Amino acid sequence: MNTLLERESPPMTVGCEMHRLAAELYPFARSITGDGVRRTLETLKREMPLSIYEVPSGTRVFDWTVPREWNISDAWIKNEKGEKIVDLKNSNLHVLNYSVPVHGRFTLDELKGHLFTSAEHPDWIPYRTSYYKEDWGFCMSHKDYERMEEGRYEVLIDSELKPGYLTYGECFVEGLTGEEVLISTHVCHPSLANDNLSGIAASAFLAKQLSGLDSRLSYRFLFIPGTIGAITWLALNESKIRKIRHCLVLACLGDPGMFSYKKSRSGSSPIDRAAINCLRHSGKNYRLQEFIPFGYDERQYNSPGIGIQAGCLMRTPHGMYPEYHTSADDLDLIRPECLEESLGLLLSIMKTLDGDLKYINMNPRCEPQLGKRGLYPPTGGQAERKSAEMALLWVLNLSDGGNSLLDISERSGLPFELVKNAASALAEKGLLGAA
Amino acid sequence: MNTLLERESPPMTVGCEMHRLAAELYPFARSITGDGVRRTLETLKREMPLSIYEVPSGTRVFDWTVPREWNISDAWIKNEKGEKIVDLKNSNLHVLNYSVPVHGRFTLDELKGHLFTSAEHPDWIPYRTSYYKEDWGFCMSHKDYERMEEGRYEVLIDSELKPGYLTYGECFVEGLTGEEVLISTHVCHPSLANDNLSGIAASAFLAKQLSGLDSRLSYRFLFIPGTIGAITWLALNESKIRKIRHCLVLACLGDPGMFSYKKSRSGSSPIDRAAINCLRHSGKNYRLQEFIPFGYDERQYNSPGIGIQAGCLMRTPHGMYPEYHTSADDLDLIRPECLEESLGLLLSIMKTLDGDLKYINMNPRCEPQLGKRGLYPPTGGQAERKSAEMALLWVLNLSDGGNSLLDISERSGLPFELVKNAASALAEKGLLGAA
Amino acid sequence: MNTLLERESPPMTVGCEMHRLAAELYPFARSITGDGVRRTLETLKREMPLSIYEVPSGTRVFDWTVPREWNISDAWIKNEKGEKIVDLKNSNLHVLNYSVPVHGRFTLDELKGHLFTSAEHPDWIPYRTSYYKEDWGFCMSHKDYERMEEGRYEVLIDSELKPGYLTYGECFVEGLTGEEVLISTHVCHPSLANDNLSGIAASAFLAKQLSGLDSRLSYRFLFIPGTIGAITWLALNESKIRKIRHCLVLACLGDPGMFSYKKSRSGSSPIDRAAINCLRHSGKNYRLQEFIPFGYDERQYNSPGIGIQAGCLMRTPHGMYPEYHTSADDLDLIRPECLEESLGLLLSIMKTLDGDLKYINMNPRCEPQLGKRGLYPPTGGQAERKSAEMALLWVLNLSDGGNSLLDISERSGLPFELVKNAASALAEKGLLGAA
Predict the structure, then answer these.
(1) Which of A198, A253, B81, B423 has the fewest CB atoms below 10 angstroms from its CB?
(2) Is the pLDDT of residue C8 over 60?
(3) Averaged over B28-43, what is the pLDDT?
(4) DSSP-derived 3-state class of residue A70
């Protein structure tokens, strides 16, 4: 029986594991503070050594203040017959996120100012928030909204908004040097899968995979509420900021759309070049976006007083898929194979950053004799051997102390990995030295 | 009756006033010296405080010498029957500009070397000059020329070429700083409307409109004879040259063609960027020309020893419309609405130069909280509000002391005015300071 | 009769002379060492003052060692009937270049590992070498190869591989300054016409033509075996390297394909700009290639420790024509008119390098009065006169000490020669001085 069972469950792919993690986190009622984030981070702890921090409400963080903590236990609208026509238990999206408590009876007209729908997608529940302006409300499908008849409705929002904490998680994967890559993901969205359980899963599995490698760079993973979380972390961790050399924000990484890379403020920082290099050699279509001061937390990292060059990797960007910020951004929208492909790309970007060093040609006057050192690639197809030979020649030609391996990959048009392998082979034979 | 009269004459548009000015100046027999320019400048004095300068013939101006003054009172060709077949009274163009005096009888063959026509446009009188080589001649329609029969013709050119003055006008509109914009227009062309009564009208009305504003920059308007006038002014005003930050030459601004902007020698000076920015956001087609050392007086301003970065704004450029330098460049070719549109563009270019300052984000670490300061645009359509919000975010993100508002407009793709308004709103709330 | 004879042989064109030289050199059995190169250089001595150098086998040259000298006197394969089915006397290509001596009987199977053919072009004999790995072999047409029957074959390679010399030639054409242009051509290929008897002929005739001119620059022509020859020269002539300002490698210059220019490592060195400028104004199509560390001896010159910016001029590049490195690269593939056109282009590139100086406008404030100095071009068609006038204005405008004549040609779009002529005319009138 055991054997049979094993035959029925082949080893789970990483993509399936990522999807399973997203599915596990899906039901939690996340917001920018509260137990939804706490439970999310506790779950993630299983995947990696995650430190969880609690920052008290009222803490000043640059121009902002950590808000009161919000939690919700129940919310519904009952019609005159006492039937719940909207019920938080059916979807976390039903309540306007950060709604203040309310209990009372309202005519339909009174209620209307507190109801949010999307006429364009009448079956879907939109996702709405009101973090900084006290309000309450319900989000519902336009179809249900249109069915509502005149009359009085009983409304309950059993939420709590009181001094507490903003919670975030941090995972540090130590490398050989103190130079750091910051990987940042927002964890404040309730039951929305692509934005951003996909980002959370990608970040968690990337942390796990990088832990197994002997990286030159260290990696710091942040699981934070959007905007206020990034601002809080930056305000409280100014000493860590100086060590950050590269930064990547992750979101929307599970849908089947092509990859999108949004550049950092400089537009040509190493994270931009590494990401674009990997995309270029992926053999797939992709989309490049210039930096704009809008989007996810790259807004904060790229602000002029912070000065972290942060890119953002997505598949279909926020706002560009119809399900965005609606109940249709569910577990069906994200796919194991897409999550896995995203993870693969992330890993190759990190390896590119990690391996991007400068070397010095130790035999810089004319070419060295490669043949006598057995450096000509012995095996592989002709095109493959030619590429490997060209990589050797390019590395030798450009390793004058001014060009890094990424520079050489860009100029030669050869994949970074091939260039890296050539450099390793040459260094082993003493033909390259550290720059 | 009064009421009726008012109904018949609606308030005159600025474009109509500009056209009326051009029409008033049209009949004067202008040249690079003489009473035609004097009368033109006297007329312009009505529109603005214009200083008129007289520079004596023989004055050395760099490599050149101010020529003798030329005036003309009569000129004609009579056939054997005594009929005037060409008469200066019919068109100022009929005489080769700067013709020496002549009176005598000539056979048709003798005369032919002194007659200029355009076979391509047989109805039009071409415009020709001979400033620096003593000569005389007549310009006439090819049709009239072909009608001339063998025989002897009596010829009179009652001109005067003797020591006198080169006359030019200068109008200074003082701003808050000593940094100056030079606006230069040639005033030497006789009865030609687009080249350059349109430029004269645009310049005069721009001076008038700028006088009413509280500009940071000062504006110096030159109404000068082409080439020798610009050289004379530059030679005699070397101390003023140092204050000039930007320069724009105006010509051919009344025809219905699309705008053309010819760049300064550097190709990327602020006047180039301001003009291109305004054209880009005009919603109209336009033409950009790289600098060449040929054209109007930008040739002189952009010479290496002067070093003023001068652009040139035109609609259809010289030589690119068939009526150019012929009697068909008349008052019908230039249109009130085109003159007015040119003036509007000029004003927006000047406002761009004037407002192009650098600011410092006073809250540079992460975004400031815009909501609590009421900075989110409260009204307008969604697209408009989004643009206004993006302008706020762009100004905050790029105001690190290195970027001016024009830099920010260029990078964001947002109109300069929107960026300027965002900067003003942010400065008012203390979020931006002077760089 | 004498008259008749003269009528039948018009004066030979330079292209025909070049082709005749190639034809004379065609039969020599060249390799990277040996008598084939020696005879080639002795023949070239007739065309120019050529110094011939002999470098002993075993000499260390950077990472390499000058190999033993190779010569061959006979080589064949006989079938069982004693018929020579492959014979060196029919083609120098028949023997694997640098084959060690062999004499014996082999079965077809034993022989097969030593036979090289091209199935793609069954009539052609491929060209193969084994300089640094001891081996022997025959190259033959695939058609002949397929005719070979089972049985035993008698094989002879009567070659000699023993301590001797590497031979190269050097021709120096002295100019007014010590700044040098290096022109390098490989002379190691046996009976192959385009690669590289065409390059040898172009180089020889360029040397001859440049000798007659009063050049500013000096020219050093190298006729060297590929790779090891360039490395040897560089290793033994380090003091000369410092004088080299520009370098051009010549190959494949006789076929009727369009010109190809492969850029130097920097991609924008003067040799690149001069070559591209001449190609652009040639009125013909041409191909530009970015630098790659592969190809001819530009690989060595452009190595980081040598740092000579070397371009490579070809018509159809190596590997891009089907006859490349086969017996079909013969005297029919190269054409007198193509050789002559290549020589013309080379000469114009050299003149561009030679004339590329910076001047100073001595009358930099506004334009000087060209008319009074008789500088306006008096004759020529209107377009031609306009171009000549524009050249004068461009030179005056850009001669601020920062722009060379090549800069001015590039920016103005005018041919270098026109710009050079304008500069000469202006300098003669004292309007330009040396920068």
Answers:
(1) B81
(2) no
(3) 98
(4) strand
Do the Cβ atoms of A248 and A312 come closer than 8 Å?
yes
Q: Which of C62, C265, C292 sits opposite A366 (nearest CB)?
A: C62
Chains that touch C (3 or more CB pairs under 8 A): A, B
Q: Which fold has domain A69-162?
A: Glucose Oxidase; domain 1 (3.50.30)
- Taking the Cβ of residue A228 and every Cβ of chain B, the question of whether any pair is shorter than 8 Å is answered with no
Query: Where exactly does CATH 3.50.30.90 map onto chain B?
Result: 69-162
Q: Residue B5 has what pLDDT?
A: 46
From CA A271, how far away is CA A250, in angstroms rounded?
A: 13
Of 1.10.10.10, 3.30.360.10, 3.40.630.10, 3.40.50.300, which CATH number belongs to C4-66+168-355? 3.40.630.10
The tokens describing A63, both together, are: 């121009």
Residue B286 has phi, psi (to 5 degrees) of: -155, 170
Q: Does B129 touch chain C (CB under 8 A)?
A: no
CB contact under 8 A, C371 and B235: no
A376 touches chain C (CB under 8 A): no
A412/C234 Cβ within 8 A: no
Q: What is the pLDDT of residue A7?
A: 52
β pairing state of B165-173 and C432-434:
unpaired
Q: Is the torsion defined by CA of A409, A414, A418, A422 positive or negative?
A: negative
Residue B212 confidence (pLDDT): 83
C410 and chain B in contact, CB less than 8 A: no
Q: Per CATH, is C358-434 categorized as 3.40.50.720?
A: no
Which pLDDT does position B119 carry in this prediction? 96
Asked if A371 and C305 come within 8 Å (Cβ–Cβ), the reply is no
Please, are residues C197 and C332 in contact by the beta-carbon 8 Å criterion? no
Q: Looking at beta carbons, which residues of chain C come within 8 Å of B230?
A: 366
Distance, in Å, from the CA atom of C323 to the CA atom of C306, rounded to the nearest integer, reads 33
Residues ≥6 apart with Cβ < 8 Å to B360: B399, B400, B401, B432, B433, B434, B435
Note the pLDDT tens digit of each residue in A16-55: 999 999 999 999 999 999 999 999 999 999 999 999 999 9
Q: Give the residue range(s) of CATH 3.40.630.10 domains in chain A.
A: 4-66+168-355
pLDDT > 90 in chain C, percent: 94
Closest CA to B207 of B34, B49, B42: B49
Residue of B nearest to C393 (CA): B293
